[in-house]
Amino acid sequence: MGARMRIAVTGTHRVGKSTLIEALGERLAEYRVVDEPYHLLEEDGYEFASPPCLEDFLEQLRHSMELLEDGEGARNVLFDRCPLDFLGYLLTHEESDSFDLEEWLARVCSSIRTLDLVVFVPIEERDRIQLPAHEDPERRAEVDEKLAWLLLDDPFELGVEVLSVHGSRSERVTQVLERVGRGARRR
């Protein structure tokens, strides 16, 4: 039996987050999977600009924080993305000067601290997912760098454990399952 945890999988687009979540959901059958805010908002009728504008990322940030806050006591949850994902996109957006980080920071930190583990899926040297021609590889790399800074350098002293995963899908799954197993032995 694994640890009872709240886990978020984070990373820039097209790094294999959703694939990892799907595989973890299969292996951790007692866990509930929460889809990423983009898809949940879309299902609720929210219309995103293409490419997403600053307000689209703010709406996803709001929704992500609500998901974490609403189910704060719930355990055995896998979140596809967390508020830090959207900070990464907002801080690298071409209109980032319009984003007031200080206005959001306390609530972002508070919601992140409801998590037991953040699994970071970085861009790897040999990219595992081919980018479509319309995707901006520089923007993707900027978001990846910003997320690495937020998660690994921890400038806001979030204090949440971060597991950076690498390798194939099965290697990534194994890394997370090993960490979840260690959590079970510690409790």
From TrEMBL:
User: Could you tell me which Pfam families the record lists for this protein?
Assistant: AAA_28
List residues of the NadR/Ttd14 AAA domain.
6-172
What is the superkingdom listed in this entry's lineage? Answer: Bacteria
User: Entry's SUPFAM superfamilies?
Assistant: P-loop containing nucleoside triphosphate hydrolases
What protein is this chain from?
NadR/Ttd14 AAA domain-containing protein
